[in-house]
Amino acid sequence: MKQHRTTTDQQIQLQQKMIHYRSEIASYKNKLKALEAELKKETLRNQYLQKKLHHIQTDNIEQYEKKIADLENQLLSYEVALEEEKTQFSELKKNLYLQKEQQHSQPIIKLQSFFNYSFFFPETNEDDLLIFGNFMIDNIGTEPLHEPMICIRIKPIHAGKLSGKISTKQVKMEENFLLSEHSSTEWTFVHENWRESIKNNGEYWLKPLHHSTLAPCKVLQFHNFEIRARKTDDENALVVEGYVYCKELPKGIPSLNNIIVNW
Fold first, then answer.
1. What highest taxon heads this organism's lineage (predicted)?
2. 231 near 159, Cβ under 8 Å?
3. Could you report the per-residue pLDDT of 229-247, keeping only the tens digit for each?
4. Which range of residues forms the domain containing residue 214?
């Protein structure tokens, strides 16, 4: 009886184990099916991504190749343009060199002049306006200038009087001209009838006493001149003009600036 019970218990245990194993097998089958489905899904996804990647790589390669070709063509055009620029620059440099050679071989006659001045304004209407200044002449050419002379013109004619280091045997101290000893900056009148020129035209024609030649890159100046000016009834401005003449430039060169007083 006892033996029969033992055998029955063993059969029950075996059946339970078989049920458990079958349940495990079913569970693994389900998991396997899920894994197979996931694998299939990943495979499809991977294929899609590979296809997309291939498409992108193909398109990008074509774009890059096209861009590279465009850049190569552009580089080629730049190289051609650069060669043209080099040729033009070489020609320009050659022409500039020839021009400089011509300039060095040909004399340049040129000068410039200008006023450097300051005002001393009157305290009352009865006082004169005083203008102190220098008239500078600069030889900016390559050749010496001979027999330089200047003309300082005051307009209106009777609105102002010029004085400075002007030497003449005919003039006296009280005639509004400052006499001085001979010096390198001393000037004299060009014409004998200088009084008439001043009276009729307001023009002061002067030449240096001790400078018959103005060398290149040298400066000649009529310095420390003085102009006494007073407002006239019919004019609202005083203008002082300057001109430079020499043997090489007989028509004269006007100064770079004028002295202008607006009343």
1. Bacteria
2. yes
3. 887 777 788 999 999 999 9
4. 111-262
